Amino acid sequence: MQSLDLNYIKNRRNELGITLQEAADQLGMKNASTYMKYENGTYSFKAEQLPALAKILNCKIIDFFNKNVAKTAI
Q1: Which of 14, 53, 55, 62 is deepest in the core (most CB within 10 A)?
Q2: Residue 41 contacts by C-beta under 8 Å, 6 or more apart in sequence?
Q3: What is the pLDDT of residue 30?
Q4: Is the pLDDT of residue 28 over 70?
Q5: What pTM did the predictor assign?
């Protein structure tokens, strides 16, 4: 099972200059504090939130997932 890359989500939001409140508003959350809890991993994003989040962050849903690529020794 793949996990969401919360660092990617936070960094992408910051790159685009989107505030916590703006992200919260666009996802229908009460306030910035609630959104921050999702971004920090206190709460888990739900599958139905990912399309809207991808639109906000101007990326693809697949970008949210960790790329667990094994490194091989040379």
Answers
A1: 53
A2: 6
A3: 92
A4: yes
A5: 0.84
